[in-house]
């Protein structure tokens, strides 16, 4: 504003003349052309500051009108600046990114991005011919956020940020760190998308989710890589809608309670399986747009299935269009590679000590739980976040002032995420993939823990798979592999995982780990699954292992579904379905998964015959106990006595050697009768038949 009127300057390429007109088409003034490329300026005496106006451009091809982006006031406020800089803004996704809005009565898109060290930031895209001169953004100095309102544009438009770094260098075009959608790889632009207009029909699911203690509910998780569960014609990806039609009914039919999706946040490289994301707020375009992903989640909820996302806040790839040196500096990571570079994955490590970085990641967790109604987050690579010296040798890391190696900023971040998730979204589950002996991963934060709901039991997974890979004749020398997990079983709220990491990189499939001929391999697998489902802890099984996939997982193709046409594979699939059903309806098998009252050994020391027997109890008198016996040699054993807490009839509710599963139909005629003969420290006992390479469940039937 000057004493002579409002100074208007505008850059409109290809215009020969430019006039300022009111929204009522009243002409104010013709601007003077100052540069042949289309730069105009002039004084408009009758135009008051804050009054909207239009620009009327003309050339030999005709006339057009447009709103001047700089006629609009800012959208963000000082409170946003304060909370963001303080690191306490919990919903950054509502302020940063590209939002379709109506501002000052005009439809358009508000863009905002954090780049505090940049000299200049412009948003470029299809709407301005990717010309960084046309929508240069305004800097909010209190927060380092740049913003602009671009009128008369909407959804579906590709865009990036053109950034000039602190030394005047023009950086590679950057995708939006808070972009809600993206182009299909190998293209890398963000895409304007709405996230405020989804239709939900899952109120009943969310209400049921919010009641009860998750530790005492059944939780059997089907881990899925959406890109390779199944493929369409010509090996194309299935869409979110096609997956909703095919995957969700299958998972429900198989009896799982949840799906865990390997990372669906946008990522440039298929071979990273999603674990190197560049778009933390964007469901990957490989399968559709954000609205399609919301429909997928909604469909799962209508089928009674929870959806857990694999979430990766530990690190990010250094692709030029991503977060690496976003504004010409190490904005999101540490400049010192001893803190900011991950040697295992050649990725950058988030700088959790920076308020804005931590707040963005906290907001990202809330985003998925709130906007997309996600039921939980499985947090990847937690161990790499907790230790400053993770996977580093002496001299390659920086200790705390007291010489310790705990990453205190990362610990504070994880606690914050868990506190907000459980406070704001009842029934949410957060799950840590944490492979060390860090104490209190699943303990509440007020007790000094990290606050996760559950922790993957990696030790159990490695020990039991090692045991099962041994020839039966050698297993007696490895007996403790199957029992050691009970030594620490209640130090955390554990989930027992057989995850994707165990079926790649030369490890073979789970079936491929089993020794012996075909009969023994399948019998071993069935017995192992029976053992796993009856052990304390929630369950997770990677896709394909439910029908005994023979080959390792290949992310470039669908699973080998044709195998289910063979009886041995169909038998494994039927067993997993029945295990899930039993686990869900039999209270003793899940009610005390995380409490020592739910488990008692019957036989733990019979290494010579490779037999394990234990009791699962619900901790309440009205819940019938279940006795489980696993036998891991290919010998039929008759006359084997086990102790039991009650005399009377115990019904055989599952036998992995049953013919319908592909077994030899050896068993106990459907039930055993316990007599008041003490054994194994119990007042009663029964003589049973142990099928070869099998697990058998017996449920007590009170008179």
Automatic annotation (TrEMBL):
Enzyme Commission designation: 2.4.1.18
Enzyme class, UniProt record, top EC level: transferase
Chain ranges of the Glycosyl hydrolase family 13 catalytic domain: 223-579
UniProt pathway: Glycan biosynthesis; glycogen biosynthesis
InterPro entries from the UniProt entry: A-amylase/branching_C, Branching_enzy, GH, GH13_cat_dom, GlgB, GlgB_N, GlgB_N_E_set_prok, Glyco_hydro_13_N
Catalytic activity: Transfers a segment of a (1->4)-alpha-D-glucan chain to a primary hydroxy group in a similar glucan chain
GO annotation terms (biological process): glycogen biosynthetic process
GO MF annotation terms: 1,4-alpha-glucan branching enzyme activity; cation binding; hydrolase activity, hydrolyzing O-glycosyl compounds
GO cellular component: cytosol
Pfam families: Alpha-amylase, Alpha-amylase_C, CBM_48, GlgB_N
SMART domains, sorted: Aamy
Catalytic residues, chain numbering: 380 (nucleophile), 433 (proton donor)
Key words of the record: Carbohydrate metabolism, Glycogen biosynthesis, Glycogen metabolism, Glycosyltransferase, Transferase
Role according to the record: Catalyzes the formation of the alpha-1,6-glucosidic linkages in glycogen by scission of a 1,4-alpha-linked oligosaccharide from growing alpha-1,4-glucan chains and the subsequent attachment of the oligosaccharide to the alpha-1,6 position.
Subunit comment: Monomer.
Family: Belongs to the glycosyl hydrolase 13 family. GlgB subfamily.
HAMAP family xrefs: GlgB
Record-given protein name: 1,4-alpha-glucan branching enzyme GlgB
Encoding gene (name): glgB
């Amino acid at each position: 504003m000057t004493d002579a009127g409002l100074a208007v300057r505008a850059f409109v390429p290809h215009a020969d003349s430019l006039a300022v007109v009111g929204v009522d088409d009243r002409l104010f003034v013709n601007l003077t052309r100052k540069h042949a490329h289309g730069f105009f300026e002039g004084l408009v005496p009758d135009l008051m500051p804050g009054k909207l106006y239009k620009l009327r451009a003309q050339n030999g091809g005709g006339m057009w009108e447009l709103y001047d982006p700089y006629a609009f006031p800012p959208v963000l406020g000082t409170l946003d600046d304060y909370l963001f800089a303080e690191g306490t803004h919990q919903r950054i996704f509502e302020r940063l990114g590209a939002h379709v809005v109506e501002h000052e009565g005009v439809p358009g898109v508000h863009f905002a991005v954090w780049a505090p060290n940049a000299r200049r930031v412009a948003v470029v895209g299809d709407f301005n011919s990717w010309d960084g001169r046309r929508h240069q953004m305004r800097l909010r100095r209190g927060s380092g956020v740049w913003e602009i309102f671009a009128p008369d544009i909407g959804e579906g438009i590709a865009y990036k940020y053109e950034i000039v770094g602190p030394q005047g260098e023009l950086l590679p075009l950057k995708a939006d760190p808070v972009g809600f959608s993206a182009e299909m790889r190998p293209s890398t632009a963000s895409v304007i998308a709405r996230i405020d207009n989804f239709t939900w029909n899952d109120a009943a699911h969310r209400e049921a989710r919010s009641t009860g203690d998750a530790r005492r509910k059944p939780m059997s998780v089907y881990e899925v890589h959406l890109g390779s569960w199944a493929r369409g014609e010509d090996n194309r990806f299935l869409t979110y809608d096609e997956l909703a039609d095919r995957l969700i009914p299958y998972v429900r039919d198989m009896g799982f309670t949840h799906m865990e999706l390997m990372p669906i946040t946008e990522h440039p490289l298929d071979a990273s399986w999603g674990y190197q994301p560049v778009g933390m707020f964007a469901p990957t375009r490989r399968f559709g747009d954000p609205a399609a992903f919301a429909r997928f989640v909604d469909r799962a909820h209508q089928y009674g299935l929870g959806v857990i996302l694999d979430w990766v806040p530990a690190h990010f790839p250094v692709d030029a269009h991503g977060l690496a040196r976003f504004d010409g500096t190490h904005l999101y990571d540490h400049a010192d590679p001893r803190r900011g570079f991950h040697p295992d994955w050649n990725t950058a490590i988030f700088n959790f000590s920076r308020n804005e970085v931590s707040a963005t990641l906290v907001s990202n967790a809330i985003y998925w739980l709130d906007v997309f109604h996600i039921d939980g987050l499985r947090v990847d690579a937690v161990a790499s976040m907790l230790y400053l010296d993770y996977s580093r040798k002496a001299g390659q890391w920086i200790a705390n002032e007291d010489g310790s190696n705990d990453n205190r900023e990362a610990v504070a971040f994880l606690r914050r995420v868990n506190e907000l998730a459980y406070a704001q979204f009842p029934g949410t589950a957060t799950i840590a993939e944490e492979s060390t002996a860090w104490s209190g991963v699943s303990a509440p934060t007020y007790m000094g823990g990290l606050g996760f709901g559950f922790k993957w039991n990696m030790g159990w997974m490695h020990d039991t798979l090692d045991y099962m890979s041994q020839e039966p004749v050698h297993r007696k020398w490895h007996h403790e592999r199957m029992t050691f997990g009970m030594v620490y079983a209640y130090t955390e709220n554990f989930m027992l995982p057989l995850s994707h990491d165990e079926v790649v990189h030369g490890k073979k499939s789970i079936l491929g780990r089993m020794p012996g001929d075909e009969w023994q391999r399948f019998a071993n697998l069935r017995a192992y699954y029976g053992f796993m489902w009856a052990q304390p802890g929630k369950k997770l099984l990677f896709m394909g292992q439910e029908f005994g996939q023979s080959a390792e997982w290949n992310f470039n193709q669908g699973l080998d579904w044709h195998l289910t046409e063979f009886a041995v594979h169909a038998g494994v699939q039927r067993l997993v379905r029945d295990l899930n059903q039993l686990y869900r309806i039999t209270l003793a098998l899940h009610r005390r998964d995380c409490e020592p009252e739910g488990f008692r050994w019957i036989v733990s020391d019979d290494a010579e015959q490779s037999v394990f027997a234990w009791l699962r109890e619900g901790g309440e008198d009205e819940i019938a106990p279940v006795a489980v016996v696993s036998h891991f040699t290919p010998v039929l054993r008759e006359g084997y006595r086990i102790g039991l807490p009650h005399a009377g009839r115990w019904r055989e509710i599952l036998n992995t050697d049953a013919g319908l599963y592909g077994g030899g139909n050896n068993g106990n005629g459907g039930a055993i009768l316990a007599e008041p003969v003490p054994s194994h420290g119990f007042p009663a006992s029964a003589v049973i038949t142990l099928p070869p390479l099998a697990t058998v469940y017996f449920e007590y039937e009170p008179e």
